Amino acid sequence: MAFDFTTEAIAHFIGAFNQIIEEARLRTDHDPFDNVGPDYGLGNGLNTITINLSAPMQPVAVDTGISYSIQLLPLPEPFTPVSVFMQTGADSGLPFLIGGLPVVPQSMTGVPFGYAAQPFVVSPPPPPPSYATVVYQQNLLADSDRLLGGDTVAELPQEAAALALDWLVEEGTALAGPDIPEVPESGADIAVTGHEVYASATAFVPDGPEEAQVVALTGEDAAGIHVDGEESETLPDLTEVLPVLPEADDDTGPAHDVITGGNTVVNEGYISFSLTEAPVIAVMGDSLSLVSISQTNVISDLDTVNGMLRGAGGADNVVSSVASFLSTSSEPESDDGDGAEEDGTVEDDAPVFPSIASVVRIEGDVVNFNYLYQQNMVDDDDVVSMELTASKTFIQSGGNLTVNATSLLELSYIYDLIVVGGDIINVSIINQMNVLLDDDFITYPEDEGWDVTSSGNVLWNQASVNSIGIDIYQAMSDEFAALGDSLAAGSDAVSGSILRHEAFEGQDEVLSVLYIEGDLISLQVVDQVNILSDVDQVHVSAQGEAAAIAGANALINIAAISEFGIDSEVQVGGEVYSDALMHQAGLIVEEDSPLLTQEGGLVTEAVAFLMDDVDQQAEDADGGYCGYAAGDDMGGDPMGGLLV
Length: 644
Fold this sequence. Notes:
By secondary structure, this protein is mainly β. The protein has seven helices and 32 strands. It has a domain of 430 residues. The protein has a seven-stranded mixed sheet with strand order 3-16-27-21-11-32-5, with helices on one face. The longest helix is centred in the N-terminal third of the chain and has 20 residues. The C terminus is likely disordered.
């Protein structure tokens, strides 16, 4: 609607006056635009800048100081010509070709050839790398808040919660699986550590109180997916059980929100690697392999709400452990009709084998060692005493997030044949533990539309050891034993019988051979621990609908060790040791559990200290201060029944 002339004039005057005031206040956005640059016109053109670059340094050729000599030796039938590859110089290794061999230049002299054929340069694959990684990650968080805006209440001494948490950690440690080794002091100790882990896992005997649920499987029984001790076809989805907290700007919920829990602590570790591999592996010593997963959950969730003990909240808490051992062949599934012609006949060509061999030597061990330790320790023992009088309130003294995350990717090479002068050690161990103390102490007016969540916690362990490539073990044959002895004596000759081994059929190029003088070691260690204390004391009153969340914590451990290799025939000169361990344990402290007062749990003095004035609890509840004794610094049952 248009204004009359007088109203329009007044409106414009007010707008102009407002702009003058804003300019006086140094509001630069009201200043007129000034062109501070040089005048520009079509005839002036643009300024140009000329930059002159010079590079007086010229690259020169690099001489690595490495020389090579190649010798092809003639052998009578039925033997196949063998290549002997020799390296001199400070370093070794040469870029190699895949799918072909270069011809020796005509200008190359001084290289003797005794085989009457076109000479070839045998380019070996590079020597395999070794890895050693140690990762320590730790979060320590103390977030014990005191928000007192109403009546003064007696507070639980911090010593009581700390004492109860220590007790829970001791119970969790007793339930845990095989001991995690210390970090080896040197590379020479890595093989010893692998043997120690194997001995600890194979000798492990589950322990713990009768109230705990413990499942331990070994050998083939441990293979597959296990969820809380039961075999499963699928993995559960963590995202479906995670607690959801209200947001501060959420207008759809209650008018008042008080969040003293809602903490999330996460350990996440992924190790993916490919160990030095070959279709045929000959180990002169022993072969030792182990996969071990141990998962432990311990929770005490004994809440006292308006004078009533709510018990362990077992129906509202999610306590779960998921473990999987999976092995997959690297060979694709073949059709029954492979090799058949359209008319039903089968092609019968002469088999093709490599004619020469290239040997790469490693003095000492080839190692892939990863040690990952992750720990979260969070203390979120809050005291909130408030009378909410506003139309809308959002109080959050919890809701902390701590995360440890590591991802490792390590790659190596694939050879045609690996000969190990020592042992093969392949050990992977994962230990996970969650400990939660969530004994809350809450009072609120029951007739004012309150929604109280003192449980709803998630304790989640998920671990997997997956491998691509299946090893088939067999006793060492005479020909491979002779090859191992020959390589150990310093010879690089590979006999024709080895070249014509059935595993090398179809390969018409050079046979790449890796000789490891020491051990071939893969040692993977993952240790994850979450410890959370969330003992909340909440005394709140409000007008209208309100919600209090003193639980809804999430303790999460996720670990995966993935090995990418190929199917291998492993010939062992010594013994074959192979085992697997899947261990899952859980302990939920109940209100009538004898663990609370049994000998060896808590010291007698501590029990007496916490049991003091317990008879006053009912009377205190009538006065609106459930669990607190009037005039007492601690109260009748400040741990919400934890130690009753």
